[in-house]
Amino acid sequence: TEAVLWGAFIEQHLEELGGSAKVAALVTTNDFGAAYESGFKAFLAQSPNADKIEYVTERVEPSAVNLKDPMTTIAAGEPDVFIGMLVGTPCSQAMTESAENGMNEAVAYKFISSVCKSSSFVGRDKVGEASDGWWVVGGGQKDINAPTYEDDAFIQWGQEVVRAAGHDPSTSGSFGSGLFYYWAYVQALRIAGELPGGLTRTNFLLAARTMDMTHPYLLEGIRFNFDGNADAYAVEGSDVSRYDAAQQAWVQDGPIIDLSGQSDNCAWDASAGICG
Questions:
Q1: What is the pLDDT of residue 273?
Q2: β-strands 109-112, 135-137 pairing
Q3: pLDDT band at residue 276, thresholds of 50, 70 and 90?
Q4: CB-based burial of residue 272 (10 Å sphere; 0-12 exposed, 13-18 middle, 19+ buried)?
Q5: How many helices (DSSP H) and strands (DSSP E) are in the chain?
Q6: How far apart are CA 90 and CA 67, in angstroms?
Q7: Which residues fall within 8 angstroms of residue 5, CB to CB, at 6 or more apart?
């Protein structure tokens, strides 16, 4: 869904970009990067504007010390749009490199993946002001460390849980990811335990695949639901946001987009590393 929304955003801005666009992606060489790229390529394959969008890539190993070489190559190609199909430390490195090689000023739209949304990757203490103006299709998730959610009851509770365990929630965005996944698992376990036969693997799967609830870690308007074997994806919605370094927060651009039930199920092809 995230890759589809990247494509839709680019299509909507083609006229602004002169009627065509060169899109450069930095893709991490693992299943994570392959999933993003296969989704984006699938969008381009069916797009009526495919001939107006040039897609080029550079690749980086997850173990790479830095991104200087591939980011320098991308900058030299003068793209209109950059997409970082990255996770972890490379999220911050992409922003820093873009600030140093001129892409921050030269590239009209720069996207980072939703898993890079956390303040622990884009905050001032990590990248200075380099994240200002970057975009994200953020998956509708809140940020456990963003000042904009400091009054959110679930965020406050989550921070207390993390601190009670002896950790500082500001040190890692993974604490927020933990809250997101934990909540769903706990709900499924509770429901499964109340079904005939109690907590079994079958009941857990049944509970999960029939779940339709309001997730407290998601922005209002993002559905969290499955539908048996017809819809295997809990979240198919997102915010589209732009980072404001002055506020140290992602600022939502436009309404929430929700495509619940619209993504086709697929089988993971382990040999090809793609969902096909």
A1: 67
A2: parallel
A3: low
A4: exposed
A5: 10, 13
A6: 7
A7: 137, 238, 240, 257
**The token pair that represents 24 in the structure block:** 């450069």
The first and second tokens of residue 77, run together, are: 């190609």
Task: Give the pLDDT confidence of 174-197 residue by residue, as tens digits.
Answer: 899 899 999 999 999 999 999 999
Which tokens sit at 18?
């002169």
Give per-residue pLDDT as tens, 12-68. 999 999 999 999 999 999 988 998 999 999 999 999 999 999 999 999 999 999 999
- Maximum CA pair distance of the chain? 62
Asked whether 146 and 248 are in contact (CB, 8 A), the reply is yes
Length of the chain: 276
Report yes or no: 173 and 120 within 8 Å, Cβ to Cβ.
yes
Per-residue pLDDT, averaged over 207-223, amounts to 95
* Sequence-ordered list of residues with C-beta below 8 angstroms from that of 31, at least 6 positions apart, any chain: 273
What is the per-residue burial (b if ≥16 Cβ within 10 Å, else e) of 38-48? bbbebbbeeee
pTM: 0.88
Supply the Cα-derived Rg of the chain in whole angstroms: 19
DSSP 148: G
> CA torsion 155→215→12→274, rounded to 10°?
110
Confidence of residue 269 (pLDDT cuts 50, 70, 90): confident
